[in-house]
Amino acid sequence: MLNLRPIEYVGKSPRNQPRRRKKSGGFFGGWFLLMLVIGIGFFYLRPIIPFLQSQRAEASVVNKIKAIETLQSSNEFAKNLAAAALKRTEQEVEYDPGYYDIAYPGGDLPEGKGVSTDLIVRSYRALGVDLQQLVHEDMSAHFRLYPQLWERKGPDRNIDHRRVPNLQRYFSRFGKVLNKSHSLDDYEIGDVVTWSLPYGAAEQAGSHIGIVVPGPGARSGEKWVVHNIGSGPEWEDKLFDYEIEGHFRFGPIRGSMTAAAETKAEPTLSN
Questions:
Q1: Residue 200 CB contacts under 8 Å (≥ 6 apart), including other chains
Q2: 140-156: buried (b, 16+ CB within 10 Å) or exposed (e) per residue?
């Protein structure tokens, strides 16, 4: 019978092995590099800080109230539309592209939910223009003239007006299609602008939409936008920040403009 014994470790105990000291870079090592990076970052970012602070201060509640009052005092539909869009920035809205069963006409999502198109729909609806009904009626009669991007066989009054490509097609059919330039002179208060986003939602075919409004305070002569790109309705100087896809001017037309229904059924989310 074999007599097996454990093999012992021969050599110094690992615990007793002398540790190698890490070479220290001294003062001109890691600390110097860290301070250098901070200094360079501060040097290049310093000019941007006042701009960001001024934009936030100018888009204040006081300036917003003044802008809304000035726009509402006008008899022009476009300026009233811009005022309605600015008022939407007072609402906290969670970005929600979900499909909802909503009332018709005058249907809307639950309070506090929506996407960029819902801001447009709600702003027009505040002036008695129901894009849900208008888009649905036109798509019912001319479905094949609208983008065929969602494998639908017919119109859907719950969602069609909430899609940027459909609004673009409707505005191009019943509004004015304007120049997509980078000149502020080509844009007027109340114009609707669509952009192409490299990271846009598939449901919107990569498109985004907003309304041109005046800038705040001392910058009221500038052209800003109200839009919802994910953080709720915002008043920002971003007209040319994205690739402009469409530029429209859409106001009241004949008798087909309909006011939102006074009584709206509670919308329900569909799976």
A1: 206, 207, 208
A2: eeeeeebeeeeeeeebe
Candidates 117, 42, 82; CA nearest to 212 is: 82
Specify the pTM. 0.74
What pLDDT score does 38 carry?
Answer: 74
Q: Which of helix, strand or coil describes residue 240?
A: coil
Nearest-angstrom CA–CA distance, 83 and 70: 8
Q: Mean pLDDT score of the chain, rounded to an integer? A: 83
Q: Residue 267's pLDDT band (boundaries 50, 70, 90)?
A: very low
Confidence bin at 204 (pLDDT 50/70/90): low
Task: Give which of 129, 134, 125, 132 is closest to 87, Cα–Cα.
Answer: 125
Cα 47 from chain centre:
26
Q: How far apart are CA 227 and CA 213, in angstroms?
A: 10
